[in-house]
Design a protein that fits this description.
A 4-stranded antiparallel beta sheet has the order 2-1-3-4, covered by helices on one side. The protein is about 25% helix and about 45% strand. The protein starts with a strand and ends with a strand. The chain has one domain. Strand 1 and strand 2 (about 15-25) form a beta hairpin. The chain contains 1 helix and 4 strands; from the N terminus they run ββαββ. With about 60 residues, the chain is an alpha+beta fold. The relative contact order is 0.28. Pfam families: YhzD. This is YhzD family protein. InterPro entries: YhzD (IPR025544).
Amino acid sequence: MRTYKLTAFEKTGELITEESFTAENDSQAKEKGQALLEEKSLLEKTHRVVSPEGKLVLFHS
């Protein structure tokens, strides 16, 4: 399992949430990230999911 980081921001740059989660690969991490954002009603906020290597797996501005 690999550890990914999910971060969501307000348009002002204020941090809303930052949390880590594990996934087998980037594809699974993207799905888990989207599910977490949906659960927290943050899909329309600026957000990103980053891999352990710093690769953007999911991004929305």
